[in-house]
Amino acid sequence: MRSWFPRSLCLTVCLLAAALPASAQIGGGGASLFITPSARADGMGRAFVSLADDPSAMFWNPAGLGFIEHPEAMTNYAKLVPGLADDVFHLYLAYIAHSQNWGTFGGSITYLSYGKSTISAADPTSGEAESLGTFTSYELAPMLSFGTALSHDLAIGFSVKLLYVDLAPHYALVESGVATSKDVNGTGTSVAVDFGALARHTVKIGQSQLELGAGAVVQNLGPSISFVDQANKDPLPRNYILGVSTRLHLQPGTSVALAVNMQKYIIPTGSDTIPGEPIHWHLGAEVVAANTLAGRVGFIHDPGGEISAMTYGLGILINKLQLDFASVPQAYDQRVKKFSLTVKF
Question: Which of 27, 150, 163, 164 is most solvent-facing, going by the fewest CB within 10 Å?
Answer without folding.
Answer: 150
